[in-house]
Amino acid sequence: MKKQFRIKKSEEIKELVTKRHTVGDQYFVIYYQPRTDNTFRFAVSVNKKWGTAPERNQMKRRVRDIVSRHQEEFHRIDFLIVAKANCKGIGFEKMKESLAELFQRLMKKEAKHE
User: Fold this and answer.
1) 27 and 95 Cβ atoms separated by less than 8 Å
2) Residues 34, 79: Cα–Cα separation, whole Å
3) Packing angle between helix 53-69 and helix 92-113, nearest 10 degrees?
4) What is the CATH number of the domain that holds 8?
5) Domains in the chain: how many in total?
6) How much of the chain exceeds pLDDT 70, in percent?
7) Angle (nearest 5°) at CA 59 between 56 and 63
8) Residues 97-112 pLDDT 10s
């Protein structure tokens, strides 16, 4: 996944969270907001209480990989994926299923607002 698709500035991440447009399940929460251009950007957040730095980094790499596999679905949206504590013990396949379902719900919600 190219870095041009990542949100790095904390002000932009705070803006996503304060808008309160969300979809979620027992493993992840996705905060999102529409964009004016035809691109998408995203960020991944894993709490320090979640585990050690290598565990958190592995989770972020896995989530970025899943997002890169679904990137053709996204357009005109910024989103933040927050990993909940429940997802610590799940496998990669379960993560893919959970995020794919959330992405579908997110795009359906976004289509209603356009």
Assistant:
1) yes
2) 9
3) 50
4) 3.30.230.10
5) 1
6) 94
7) 140
8) 999 999 888 888 777 6
Q: Inform me whether the pLDDT recorded for 2 exceeds 80.
A: no
Judge contact between 76 and 37, C-beta under 8 A.
Answer: yes
Cα dihedral sign for 4, 5, 6, 9?
Answer: positive
- Residue 1 C-alpha from the chain's centroid: 13
76 to 2, 12, 13, 37, 45: CA distances (angstroms): 17, 15, 16, 6, 21
Domain that holds residue 55: 3-113
Q: CA 97, 7, 26 angle in degrees (round to 5)?
A: 30
What pTM did the predictor assign?
A: 0.87
Query: 70-97: per-residue pLDDT in tens?
Result: 887 777 888 899 998 888 888 899 999 9
